[in-house]
Amino acid sequence: MKNAAYVTLAEWFEYLNDDCDYERWSQYLLEKLSAFPLTTGLDVGCGGGWFTRRFQREGYAMTGLDASREMLDKAQETALKEGVKSEYLLGDITRKKLPRRFSFAIAVNDLVNYLPKDKLVAAFKNIHGALVKGGAFLFDISSKRKFQEKIANTVSVDDREEVTYLNFSSVEGEKAVMEVTLFSRQADGRYLRSDERHEQYIYEKEEILAALQESGFTLLETEGHLHEKEETADRLTFLAVRK
Prior knowledge:
By secondary structure, the chain is of the alpha/beta class.
């Protein structure tokens, strides 16, 4: 039986994504938010907590939110090892209202693509409600072009000493399915197999803009990831503020 997304993969996620240049990505996000008076931040879909920790080191009081208990366990474990004190909350942003308000929120690395289309507005409204007036919301999506040209009907493999990762991807209409298999090395040298199913949704830019407007946000800017052109970018970045 396949696990839900980010059960076994939680342990290996940041390790297997070490080629995404987290530091450069973080600097890009910090640059985008530099014009705002920031103090407290919410990292929606924080996963293993890399961006939560990076923003905390920058001096912001950060709260990480994720629907995966395993991801949060890993985030807290890593934060403890690195001596970074952030708060972590378990919850689904499409249903969870936050206990207080923040001066900004980020949702990066495909969080929005994991939201079913009938729950996008609910998620945005909950993020809107978690921000102070004028609070910034910075997030991204994987582009339609990326799904159709780089993900659809592909197999990707990452074979390392401690873990082997296989991802079988398919795209049908507005939905992408990733069947992930991991072989992780155990203490006795044997490898344990685990399987996960990941489902993401392909969003057009216009759908995102409509959901932002309905949720009470004002869009300030969109562009391709790391200042790339939108037409050729694998990822689109959006910056909005709470009205």
